[in-house]
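Q: Sequence in, structure out?
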Amino acid sequence: MSDWVLGVIGGSGLSSMEALTDAAWQRIETPWGAPSDEILTGRLDGVRIAFLPRHGRGHRITPGEINARANIAALKLLGCTDLLSISAVGSLREDRPPGSFVVLDQYVDRTVARPASFFSTGLVAHVSLADPVCARMSGLALEAGRAMGIPMSSGGTYLAMEGPQFSTRAESHLYRSWGCDVIGMTGMPEARLAREAELPYACVGMVTDYDCWRAETADVQVTDVLALLKSNAEAAKGLVEALVRALPAHREPSPIDTTLDMAVVTPSELWDPALRARLAAICPRTFG
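A: Exactly. Output:
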């Protein structure tokens, strides 16, 4: 029996995983409220899987209203050891065309209205986010996608915008000048929260369109995005299945598993009891 428990967060167009055996939707409550939907649990080649549709089934939740804290907490409560995010993104680069996939390794966070931490007054921690994704999971995702024949690129910077509107042309050109490769609305604070919950996290961006910087391409319309989502989603399911088949039989510990050992700055005698109790639900090793 595998000691991996893989959490998969599905983005636009990816709302289920038919390949799971013993599949069941589970309702999970967390100290930060309810996640976007019930979580589909099951097995794939003997590996436990927990699948969460980020926007809820039927794409009911706008990006800024996603309860990212509850989503990450729910997956941790279900015993996930590692997370794979699948996200629809727009391209800011000629060499990242619609239909291609990219394994992201950096973020620029332009979101402003979303709770971005499990910590607050009474219990303070500062996790390192210099390298915001897990190199091991990212490598496995890249190899799995290429094995499936998906056009995959390795490395790229994700510009996380607030939305729900698409960017202006001036913003699109600005983000290109910053060196960003793709743009989306859900990558942050999801990656930040995964690190605070000591969950190794990788993100695969499914490119659905060129953002509006490209003069020879029509401006982004949601109909254009939807047109590619179905084929992208099927490819993403194949990628997850290939990744699971490639997992080592034994999961070696990751440095991310113990992130909080070097992050909590408030002395334990001063911890706020209520906040400690909430954090103990997802980080019992540190706060239990």
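The chain has one domain: 5-287.
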